[in-house]
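Hi U.,

Before I forget, here's the chain from the pilot set. I'm dumping it here mostly so it's searchable later in email.
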Amino acid sequence: MNILLTGANGFIGKHICQLYPDLNIMRVSRKQTNNDKCFYINELDECTDWANAVQDSDVVIHLAGLAHSNSHTINDYNKVNVKGTLRLAEEAAKFGVQRFIFVSTIGVNGTSTSLTPFSAEQSINPHNDYAISKYDAEIGLKKIAKETGLEIIIIRPTLVYGANAPGNFGKLIKLVSKLPCLPFGLAKNRRDFISVQNLADLLVTCAKHPRAAGHTFLAAESETVSIKQFTNAIAKGLDKHLIQLPIPITLMRLAGSLLGKSLIVDQLIGNLEVDTSNLKEVLDWVPPYTMEESMVFLKSQLR
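Structure:
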């Protein structure tokens, strides 16, 4: 099986290459390299020429794209995340690629849940331009699948954690590393996460599994935890001692409101649960690593 991996130099892509060195992976890069297993592109948009990359590929795992950032406009997201993705899928179908795995975002479903976990086909509520672009790409990919027979698999990960992770988890690592105390002693919220090791395993499983085609999977582990439990797990992984102060949740929400940080506070102490039942039912997949086992890898970040 020949796999074309976009975003190979990113956080998730690097882990796939490191964890599965025996896979025949063609990496896509925007940097010129001497590696004969690397395909160079100048830009990811509706004009990218993919012919030489996809003509010998069986599966595309598409990780590349613009991540959430205040510096990007809706036009930027549309150019890269929507048009760039659909261009790649169209070229893949044209040259006989069998399967296209698209890594979307749980943001397609929204930012938080109440009593009912998010499911793949319900609670669609993309909350920002980034999530909208991912959902638009999903819709376009399903249309291409109907028109061409290209097997589309959509993965919407919850927050992905691991050593040297970008975004919110990277900020949590810094907090736990530098501060002896955090204010989550009274937190009893419920959030789902997935380690980069487990996500890499899921993506490779989707590349191989005959029943994966046509499904949308919400990617998370089987352990739903509070932000208190999650940060305690980070601390344990880093061999740090952490004190959790019993700050009332209402006080944290008030502070977030006054400081204009309500969304950040909700991402920490709000609920976000997802229904992962089809991972077991369709793929017979269970995460190979527990959260505690995954957190052990964080020590490499401190070296």
